[in-house]
Amino acid sequence: MQQIVTTQSIMSDFAVSTGLLDTSREPRRYLWTDAFAVCNYLQLYRQTGEPTFLQLALKLVDQVHQTLGRHRKDGVRRGWLSGLDDEQAQLHPTYGGLRIGKRLDERHPGEPVNESLQWDQDGQYFHYLTKWMHALNCVSRDTGVGIYNQWALELARVAHAAFTYTPSTGGTKRMVWKMSIDLSRPLVDSMGQHDPLDGLITYQQLEATAKRFPETPSELSLKTEIEEMVAMCAGHNWATEDALGIGGLLTDAYKLVQLIDRYHLHETARVEALLRDIDCSLRAFVSHTPFNLPAEYRLAFRELGLSIGLHAASRMQKCIELHPEHFTNASQLAALLTNLTCFHHLHELVESFWLKPGHQVIKTWQEHADINCVMLATSLTPDGYLQL
């Protein structure tokens, strides 16, 4: 109960401070944070039955589209990123993708790369777009309204076309990590380690949900995009020592488990391989004893991403125990998940550490206060984000 109260307090403060409720404030929208926030409001609605929380989720979706679906106010261009007129853009708000929401404008054509500024410059990230696809999908889940998943499908098609390319030497497609605001040119050419996997599983999630809404246009099918992502994922080892990355792998694995359980997706081998990579990742991560460092040398949102993922591990275990007949390799998956139980307590360490008021006044917390607060709330009440 205390976790619900804490989450309510965090998310109420967030609504005011970022201009979602307080109309006297300029909206401060950031795509990653807002994706988690939508899921948090949905979870609060599910837990309390209070329609205010559903209204906040829907209002946030609209404000993100109205803000991050348009060009920056300090830029030279105006209007929607898609180039559609206002009437059509309101109907298709994700056609042009969505800006990250960084404080600085993007690097302009011909301008040299400045590594120290890159993290503060706007553009579009694929892994942020997939988070928003997931948030929209969750809105359809909780409202029974298919248009939100349809917007997610439209975003998936736009993002896939912009971020993937065939190398000049031919072969399997690859991805770029960061694109310009209008998706016309890459800003960072390298491929994010988990972007193909994240894309594949998100696409599969959207396709499965679309079957619940027969009004979804057939041309929004992601069959080709899924096939291309499958090819990009082939042979990859996903192991990482990054806390946020490990958390993402855990949540991706849980998504697959749910898709297999509910929609009979043929991905049991991928789940098994993922769990092996996760086990290696967690063992390497804890060997560095990162939780012994003082708060000043830690990034809360990265640790909280791991914490959210660890909540997914126990839920995977329960799902497979309840329906082993849905998994062709249930015994192997159960054994791998049993091996991960020794890490479950880490989410309690992370949450209790960052709940301490003294740790929330340090510079590294304050510099990322919105994302830290929202992801802390997600870790405390994770089902709005984790469940499909």
Description:
With 388 residues, the protein is mainly α. It has three domains: 1-68, no CATH class; 84-231, no CATH class; 237-388, no CATH class. The protein is 59% helix and 3% strand. The chain is built from 17 helices and five strands. The protein has helices at 2-17, 31-48, 51-68, 86-91, 115-118, 126-143, 147-163, 195-210, 223-233, 243-263, 268-286, 300-322, 330-340, 346-355, 363-366, 369-380, 383-386, and strands at 124-125, 164-165, 174-175, 178-179, 186-188. The strands form two sheets. The chain has a three-stranded antiparallel sheet with strand order 1-4-5. It has a two-stranded antiparallel ribbon with strand order 2-3. Helix 6 runs parallel beside helix 8 (195-210). The longest helix is centred in the last third of the chain and has 23 residues, at 300-322. The chain starts with a helix and ends with a helix. The model has no long low-confidence stretch (mean pLDDT 96).
